[in-house]
Amino acid sequence: MIVRSRSPLRLGLAGGGTDISPYCDTYGGSVLNATINMYANCTIELVPDEQGITFIAQDIQQQFHTPLASHIPLSGELMLHKAVYNRIVRDYNDNQPIAMKVYTFSDAPPGCGLGSSSTMVVTILSAYKELLKLPLSEYDVAKMAYEIERIDCGFSGGKQDQYATTFGGFNYMEFYECDRVIVNPLRIRDSIINELESQMILYFTGVSRSSAKIIDEQIKGTKVPNSSSLDAMHQVKRLSYAMKECLLKSDIDGMSTLFKEAWLAKKGMSSSISTASIDDLEDRVLSAGAKSMKITGAGGGGFIMLFVDPIHRLTVEKTLKALDGRIQPFHFTQQGTQSWTV
């Protein structure tokens, strides 16, 4: 038996960082995001018991094998793969081990700012859901993915990525204490999506980074009353409301202007969010005709979103092509995680 799954990566349009505890527990967080046609992919193949358990992450060229076991220690490489297996076997297979080969690959590298690690957890979970015919809702899958990544593995981060890839499309998300999450799907007209795609450029800086340090700095700043970091976080949240309103009203110029404000506020959350090379890139693209730019994700590298009038698009793209990264073509997608049996 073979099952496959794929889950879309996301762009963080506004509010990123306010989904991280303890900020969202104390003040409430809100995030506007949208999924795109870049995916994390998984294939699970059942094998005879004597072949044991094998995880193969094809994109990062890592592999793990163990004889049949109901629990795999969470150490070394491919911790996320191991943690998902452990949770599924414990909670949904009566602690009975499963002989299998799990193949995964992502269209974007880890640490790129598109939520690739969380998306990979969701897509592996989605494959197990199909394999075992588990009656799990979108909220169930996203919450479990969050617990696996943040609690079982102890990795720093927020909550938006797991919910974005599970639900898919344009979503306005609210985050509260006790891990309460409300996902508000937005109905965006095709004409608005077309205009957004015509005005946005997605650019990979070529630098992948660990988000843990930046996130830990944000958490530290959140705990200091009246700190500049906390004020910046409040501003980021306020801008998510305004960005949602512009999107729903097809005010793309308004979104572009808010991007400027959001980028300034985001940089105020941590000194590690921007770098000298990112500042130089910003100067170059704005001089070439871009209206605004902002990093998607924690910062420090990864992907950058730019707003540009289509009349100036080729000029901005020419400027970007002279740098070390690459332009990433994309389209918005309305579907979340999907799984099927071959």
TrEMBL record:
Q: Which family does the UniProt entry place this protein in?
A: Belongs to the GHMP kinase family.
InterPro entries (alphabetical): GHMP_Kinase-Related, GHMP_kinase_C_dom, GHMP_kinase_C_sf, GHMP_kinase_N_dom, HddA/FKP, Heptose_7-P_kinase, Ribosomal_Su5_D2-typ_SF
Name the source's superkingdom.
Answer: Bacteria
Q: Which residues form a coiled coil?
A: none
Q: Where is the GHMP kinase C-terminal domain?
A: 243-310
Question: Which residues belong to any copy of the GHMP kinase N-terminal domain?
Answer: 82-169
The record, for Gene3D superfamilies, names: 3.30.230.120
- Which terms are listed as keywords in the entry? ATP-binding, Kinase, Nucleotide-binding, Transferase
Protein name, per record: Dehydrogenase
